[in-house]
Every structure is written in C-alpha cells, then in structure tokens.
Records
---
Amino acid sequence: MNIVRRGEEIRIHSVDIDLRLTLMDSAQTFHWLAVNGAYYGVAAGRPVCVRETENGVALSPTAEGDEAHFVRYFDFAREYERIGRAFAMYPAARAVGMLPGMRVLNQSAWDALFMFILSSNNNAGRIRSLTLSLSEAFGQRHEINGVEFYSIPTPEELVAAGEEKMRGLGCGYRAAYLYKTARRIAEGFPLDALSAMGYEAAHARLMELPGVGDKVADCAQLFGMGHSEAFPVDVWVERLLRAWFSEEFAGVTNRHAMARRGRELFGKDAGIFQQFLFHAARKGLIPFSEEGEKAI
DNA sequence: AGCCAGGTTTGGC
DNA sequence: GCCAAACATGGC
C-alpha cells in the first residue's frame, strides 16, 4: 500500500479493491450512490467521492490527515489473501479467491446498526431503498461534483422525525424498532463505547436495543465496531454451513449456536471469512441444495 | 396467490 | 431454555 496526496485528493495505490462489489453488491452497506463509474456517500462521517484507479482508489475531497480514516474504512491494512490461505483446508474457502477486491468495511457504529435494523426479514434491494428514503427525508444533504446525496439520519434526527413519518416511508414494523433504538441512544445509551469493549460484552449491550437480536448485533459489530470475530448467521450462511461444514457444525441446531461455533472455529477473522462465504452463497458461486447438500 | 427476504419479539411449554 | 407464530412491505 502506498498513499499519495494531491490537493484535496487522496490516492491509495497497490490495494485490492472492487468498489462496485464492496459498496453496491455485497450487502454490508446500502447507502452508496453509483454515478458515472464513481461512488458517492458518507464514509463513516466523511462525505466523499471514490473511484477506482489502475491499482487502487482515488478519494476526494479530503482533508489533511484523512488518510488513516479511509485506510480503516476500506480495511486496507488487513491481508485477505492470508485469510484465504489460513482456511484453505475447508473447500468452501475458495470463496475468498473467487471474490477478489471485496473488502469488509469499518463503517460507523450507528450507520451499521441503522441499516441492519432495517435488514430484519427483508431483502437487500428494499434495505437499500429504505436507507436512501430515510436519509433523504431526515439526513443531512451533501453535494460533490454536482451529485446530491444524504447522510444516514442520526438518532436525534430520527427522534425529531417521529415514528409515524418513518412508517410512512415504508419501514413497516421496523419503524418502531428503529425509532425506539434511536431514542435510547439519544437518551444516552453508550453506542460509541461498545467498539472498545470485548465482543461478548458489546453483544450483550446491543441485544438490549429494540429490533436488535443476535444477527443484527453481529452485523453491527462486524461492519460498525471493528469486531472482526463476529460471525453473523443468516439464511444463506446457515445453508452454506450445513452443506460445506457438516462435520465442523455437527450437532449445532440453531443460528445462535452456529454463530458461537463460527467464532470458535475461525477466531479473530471469523467475520471476514463469513462475508466471503455469505456472498459466495448468495450469488451461487458455492452451490448447495435446499437440503444442505453440496452441489459440486 | 403464495413464498421469500442478511430476523426479532412474544407467548406457550 | 427451546419452539412457533405474528409481524409490514414489495418483488417475483
């Protein structure tokens, strides 16, 4: 990795990054706009335009000292090839090599929590449209290169908007979850302190929030709190584990136990590995039947 | 029309 | 503790 600044632009060279895969297709974030081959959005508090270069990315506008922020956001300091090798004894680990340039983002805790509360029993397309609708209605406006986009609304902005207006945008029963959680945070729940806590303690605190169960908590921790051992288990990961890890997960009956077993088995990189397994499963790159049989 | 979507909550054993 | 059903919404 090599970082160069020119005026308001930061260029990060010699990194493995596929922006469309990471920002638009991988279902770990839902708020980015793709316009003319560039991507516009707020990256953990920094409104920015990102585009791919020959062997990396260019970001603008940026301020002095933002380099470390974007390296962290795109997780450029972690070597994903090493993770693929470390799990090479599992046939399904070819998922890592099949998705070059997918990064596991370090988003802000609230942004990740917001989007994954909306994700419950929902599909990626509608999570995205709800995220964009709520952001445009209640978030802050930004404009770069004539492209207009919005911050995800803060807890305070959601509380000011009210549950009924949120429901009016199509949130369904998730409006109550998101509104009540926003109110808890606005009233002092220490969301930003959870990143500094251990996985288990932070997980237990997150589960206190309305609309946050094991899966949403794990996604918020993995994508928004730097807890790389969090191992979210959704429908896709469950099917994949039953098919391709039947010995390792033998006797594991429910998703809560699968998530615990995933952390035990894969350790600190469990969540990174999970993201590759998840996406490969969802896209049919690693096939299996409904009964959990491998389909090679 | 009925099933599914990166689930959570609630109420019954 | 574990399990089933209810919960809004839109796309296929």
Note: The mean pLDDT of chain A is 97.
---
Amino acid sequence: MEGPSLFLLREETKQFAGKRVLEAKGYAKIDFSLLQNKVVQDIRTWGKHYLILFPQFTVRVHFGLFGNYRVDEHKAGKNASMHLRFSNGELNCYIAHIKIIEEEISDIYDWRLDMLSEKWNAAYVKKVVSQQPAGIYIGDLLLNPDIFSGVGNIIRNEVLYRCGVHPASPLGKLPSDKITAIIKDTHKYSLEFLHALPSHTVGKTWTVYNKKLCPKGHTVIKSVMGKTKRNVFICKVCQKKYK
DNA sequence: ACGGTTGTTAGGCC
DNA sequence: AGGCCTAACAACCG
C-alpha cells in the first residue's frame, strides 16, 4: 500500500477517534492488554505509517507489501494481525506490522515530508534532497521512505515518466529545476492516485507501470534497477537518462 | 498452480 | 562501526 491508500484508511476510520477500545487482539507481537479500554485520541498518517494515538502511546501500523485491512467487516478464515473493536465499528488489519511507540510522535515524524499532509513543503523536501549523495539514482532516492514519505513503486515510476527522467539518472546530474519538478509531481500524482482510489480507477492513471506501451505508443521496458531492486518501467524515448 | 509483488525492518556477516 | 545482503511477512492476483 502506498501513501494515498493510507490516507484513505484514515478517512474511513475517523469515527474511531474519541472512542474506547472494547476489544483488542491479533497475532502481532504486542501487548494487546495495553489497548484494552483505552480511548483513541486521534488517528493520523505519516507516509505509509497509520498511527492510532492514545494518551500514553501510539500504535503504528505498517502494511508493507502484502498488507490490507477491512473496516466494519472481517475476512472469513483469515487471522488478523490486529483487530480493534469499538462501540461504533471495528478495524481489522491483515499482514500488518504493528508497533507501539512510546515517543511523542511530533518528535519522530516531520510532517513537512509527508506528501499528503497540509504541512508538506516542497522547498524543505528539496533541501533534504540536496543533502543526499550526488551519485544516488533518482529512482532509488524516490523510494527512500524517510524523504519521500508515502511514495511507493507505482508513484515513483509514474512520476519519473511524467517528468521525462530515466530512473538511473544520478541525482547530481539532474538540473535543479528538474529535481523541483519531480518533487512537486510526487505530491500532485499522489493526489490523483488518492482521488482515483474510491472508484477503483487508479490503474487508469498509469502511463508505464505494468504497461507494455507508454501513452505515446513507445515500448515500455521492465527491469530491476538500483539498490532498491524493485521493478522499474521505462520508456527510453520519453525518459532522458541524465549522465 | 504458482510466481511475482502497491515495503520495510531486523539481523547476520564481513 | 557500519555497509551490504537476505529473510521474513504468509495474501492476492492473473
């Protein structure tokens, strides 16, 4: 799940803020008794982190590659990693990594880097990016969750096509205005992704991801690239390799 | 039926 | 110490 899906989950579970946990269980290795009878203070997201705030601690949920969830229903025969029941509904998380965070979340999360936060700040992202090694591929950099919080493999591939940049371009070889354009487009495309989610039409926004041809009819090459070893989809005509 | 995957962390090995 | 690598997750899709 990429950032926009987490944002949607937050929207779908807002009604649990202010509610008391009536039941908490699951196969996750946390002490569920800590959650029992506690009142949810707030529900937030930071990138791909789904955060349930309680007065003394925060439950951090990460869905990883395979995770998913159900609100007010559950999957038959599936074991939830975390099940929370409230008076007005329930949340079930599957194959999710659950962690209890003791720290104040404002100390560990910088909302200027969260693409879908109102506090997201393109100039600040640019500043952080400028401190990265010049040799790093832009394709790898976009998958750094500490900088491009919320960007996943679909968003990085789409943004790089939209900006006309080959993923194996080293950061130091990209013109400054091109870096700015990429940063701004991670935000813009994430919103398009988010808005397409409820109608299940995200696939219609794809230009290269899982495509054989780009919108201009050129061949899209699928390969694995960089340190992140994830699939990249590249149109060699539309995307320039800076070097 | 089975291989690939919309991530990330932990832990081992040099 | 720290960079690099891999396993783990155990589900869904085509």
Note: The mean pLDDT of chain A is 92.
